[in-house]
Design brief:
Length: 392
């Protein structure tokens, strides 16, 4: 390759890189020039010191705050918040870059969806922290420019922090939703299946109990006959207790009548589940109430944890999906392995009267051969008789 050709290729590569950089940058609002911001969106705010967050949106508000050390949802009677979701929100805000500053953006807030009107309302995130209070307004997404290639970046989001400038973020802020139904922790029990020592089940038709021996093998409790058990089917009950989740919390004045009962014992603590009839108006989900009691001889830390869970769960009625209650309350007959299939009887060959078919064919051939042999003999006798007559 000649030097001239190589030089032209380098020039072409530089031009292509310039075009790519021009199209990949985030453009600002039409008719304006954006300036790059420095650092993160909230600057020096220490998000680890946040003690309360309020999210306000269209027709919904959620107040999240620490109550006795735990994050709770005020709209759900201070029920524990989904901590994984909350952590994702805080991390998303804390890691967001400052973005581009929109010159004169504060004079046209409505154009960026940062003031409420008939068509849109910004999401308002108010955070209380060690340095005071910070308000984050989350406005509209940026629409791509006509000249922007379809394979370009995802449109950004316009935001404003306190009384600062309008900024255009490269990435959206995750989990910034104001509906309180999305913020409470739906996990009811987080039991380790291998730690459950015994379960007692009582339905309207039968009762049975399963216990875990010192060898970790599951057996029917109080069974001296050694009745067999389908371990895979039984383990589904323990798995349902480990991942029990609710669809909703019913109002305090909702009617409840427990028709089935399940007790699970773990290290001196008993979790009692009272389960009602399926509700057709809730897609066959079933109401459930849970109580937690600790034995008198348990360790102080175990008793304290049981008391904490009891305060959280007692007095509330949850709705759980029907598939989970089916796993919690299976009929005992489905937990017993079916008897082994009996082997089919060996077919007995029937004896053919008069011999086999092959034998009958052989006899028929012998008879035919005998008839063929008798025919020449009869012909010879007839010839001798005729000669004797002629001689006479």
């Amino acid at each position: 390759m000649s030097k001239k050709t190589l030089f032209l290729l380098v020039i072409l590569l530089v031009l292509l890189l310039g075009v790519w950089k021009f199209h990949s940058r985030l453009p600002a609002a039409p008719g304006s020039v954006a300036a790059e911001g420095d650092g993160t969106l909230l600057g020096t705010v220490d998000m680890s010191t946040v003690t309360a967050i309020t999210l306000e949106g269209v027709g919904a508000t959620t107040h999240l705050a620490r109550v006795e050390g735990d994050w709770c949802v005020a709209e759900k009677d201070d029920y524990p918040a989904d901590f994984d979701r909350l952590r994702e929100l805080i991390r998303s805000i804390d890691d967001t870059e400052a973005g581009q500053v929109i010159p004169a953006g504060t004079e046209h807030l409505a154009e960026f969806g940062l003031v409420g009107d008939e068509t849109s309302t910004p999401t308002r995130v108010t955070m209380q922290h060690a340095a005071g209070q910070t308000v984050l307004l989350i406005g509209d997404r940026r629409a791509p420019n006509p000249s922007e290639p379809y394979w370009g970046r995802v449109p950004g989001r316009y935001v404003r922090v306190d009384e600062g400038p309008v900024r255009l973020l490269k990435e959206d802020i995750r989990m910034a939703e104001a509906d309180p139904d999305g913020w409470w922790d739906r996990s009811l029990l987080k039991l380790v299946a291998e730690d459950i020592q015994r379960i007692d089940v009582a339905t309207g038709t039968e009762t049975y109990a399963i216990e875990r021996g010192e060898d970790q093998v599951l057996r029917w409790a109080d069974d001296d006959e050694g009745e067999e058990m389908d371990s895979n089917a039984v383990n589904r009950i323990f798995g349902a207790l480990r991942g029990l989740r609710a669809d909703a919390i019913l109002p305090k004045d909702a009617e409840f009548e427990g028709v089935s009962h399940l007790d699970a014992r773990v290290a001196g603590v008993t979790y009692s589940l009272h389960i009602g009839e399926a509700r057709s108006e809730h897609n066959r989900a079933r109401p459930i109430q849970i109580t937690v009691t600790a034995a008198d001889d348990v360790a102080p830390d175990v008793a304290a944890d049981a008391l904490r869970q009891s305060k959280l769960l007692t007095g509330k009625t949850y709705l759980i999906p029907s598939y989970q209650t089916d796993q919690l309350l299976p009929a005992k007959s489905t937990l017993i392995p079916p008897p082994p299939a009996s082997e089919p009887p060996v077919p007995v060959e029937e004896e053919v009267v008069g011999g086999t078919e092959e034998g009958e064919e052989a006899e028929a051939l012998d008879a035919t051969d005998a008839e063929v042999e008798e025919a020449p003999a009869e012909a010879e006798e007839a010839a001798d008789t005729e000669e004797a007559t002629d001689a006479s």
